[in-house]
Structures are given as structure tokens and as C-alpha cells.
């Protein structure tokens, strides 16, 4: 049967089974495989939060609110090189600028919408910006710079090495040729990095990136030499197609949401960028993304199981 592997994003997460159930419900509008158009599609969650966080997030009632998974946003303690400092400062300026732009939109008077400008309120309190930036910058830094980290006594990981090893094993464990990987936020970077940069990586049928920071130069620089703009598409491991879903006011992908010109195949665009609008305060919400018809229709088309 077709299989979908989810890869979660930044910040602490609820325990794995709860997280998988929430993503399943958002995408399938019920338990996986219960609707005819999915024809028994199964799913699993590639869970890596335990590498950077000591225990699962306890307050699942707040899952996917603007407060969720931001409360443990400790800043990075040590940057050892000029490259790391440049990386962090560049990301902070871009992500912080996107947050500021979203806040500005929230202040546009309602009568502007009447003039044909469809604008929604996006409240972004100061504390939320601070914690979000801390979480985003720390998690992305620790992955791309392979930081050694100890989430619990007696456990110590080189973060990128450990996540790569687990991801490879997770993909190897899926035998169905119809295997779609869906990566959200930093999860999209993890999926891409493994599929493009790891040797002897198993193949998948399709890749879906959602709310992805892959369009940012700072991220792309840390994926070299495997990545280049003209040949960034992971054609050896992604056999069919790659779609990238974004919201322009998502603080993670909003600075540069289009990636089709950054991950080309032999110099030609090969990624399909799809824009959606995630209504509400938290535009980075994976549950809202998965509930969009554009996402569901694209996935059903990938699985060749009929029309949504």
C-alpha cells in the first residue's frame, strides 16, 4: 500500500503517536486510509525532537497554537566560528524581517480590505517573536553545523549525523514503491539534505516540502557541495515529483518562498511551488497546511488513486 512519511519541524513536539495522529487527522480528515480516495494509504512520523529536547512537550492542548513549542526557546550559547556567526545573523535578519512584515499587515486598517486588499490580522507579540527566533535559530544551527548536544544525562549526539542515520533507516524500512516524504519547516531541510547529500540513500516516489526555509541562501550554503542552483534537484532519490507549499506570511518561508529557481534539474525548473493562505494567527501551522485542498489534491494525484 502507498505510504507517507511525515518529518516534523522546529521546536519541541508532543510524543510521537500523538503527533502522528494529529497530522493524520489534518491530512486525511480522519484516520489514515478510512476514505476511499486514499485507498489504504499508511503513514508514519519520523520523529527527531528527542535529539534536541529532553522530553516530549507535555501540554498537548496547546498543540499548533502560536504559543506551542516556543516556551523552550533557549538561545544558542556558543558560536565558534565566523561562518556560524554570519549564518545566524543572516537568518535572524531575514526571519525577523518576515515577522515584522506580518506584524505590519496586522496593523493595516480594516477599510483597506474593502478596497480589494484581502488582509488578515496576524498578531505577533514581542515574546513570541523572541522565543520563535531562539527556537528556529538554535534547531537549524545545531542540525546544519552538526552540533554535539546532550538532551539527557548519558546521551550525547552529533545532531546532523544522528538525524541522518535515523532518517536513512526510516526510509529503508518502507518497502512500497509509492512512498511520499512530507517535510515541514526544518523537517523539509532534513528530508532534502538526506535525499540529496547522503550516499546510497534509498529512493522515494515523491517529496513534499511545506513551510520550508530551503529558499534562504544561508541554508543553501550549508548544503554545498551537493547542492547547486542549477542541479539542486535530488533526482537520484526522488523518482517522480517534488512540490513545495508555502504561505507568504509564514515566518519560516516568507522571506523567499519560491524554490523552483533554486533547486533546478540540469538548469531547468523541476519543483512545483504552490501558494496557500493559512488563516489565523500562526501561519506556520502544519495542521492548517495539511488541511488545504491544494495539498490534499496534489497528494492524491501523486498516489494516482483518483480525484479529490
General description of the model:
The chain has 308 residues and is of the alpha/beta class. The chain has one domain (1-308): Rossmann fold (3-Layer(aba) Sandwich), CATH 3.40.50. The protein contains nine helices and eight strands. The strands form two sheets. It has a six-stranded parallel sheet with strand order 2-1-5-6-7-8, with helices on both faces. It has a two-stranded antiparallel sheet with strand order 3-4. Helix 5 (159-172) crosses helix 6 (186-197). The longest helix has 25 residues, at 82-106. The radius of gyration is 19 Å and the shape is globular. Mean pLDDT is 83; it is low at 66-71 and 104-127.
Provide the fold topology.
Layout: E1 3-7, H1 16-28, E2 42-46, H2 82-106, H3 111-114, H4 126-144, E3 148-152, E4 155-158, H5 159-172, E5 179-184, H6 186-197, E6 204-210, H7 217-221, E7 238-246, E8 272-275, H8 286-290, H9 293-303
Parallel strand pairs: 1-2, 1-5, 5-6, 6-7, 7-8
Antiparallel strand pairs: 3-4
Helix pairs in contact: 2-4, 5-6
Counting DSSP H or I runs of 4 or more residues, the number of helices is: 9
Which regions are unreliable across 5 or more consecutive residues at pLDDT < 50? 66-71, 104-127
Ends apart, CA distance between termini: 18 Å
The tally of domains stands at 1
Average pLDDT taken over every residue: 83
Task: Provide the gyration radius in Å.
Answer: 19 Å
Number of strands: 8
Q: What is the H/E order?
A: EHEHHHEEHEHEHEEHH
Q: Which word captures the global form?
A: globular
Helical/strand content category: alpha/beta
Spatial strand sequence of the major β-sheet:
2-1-5-6-7-8
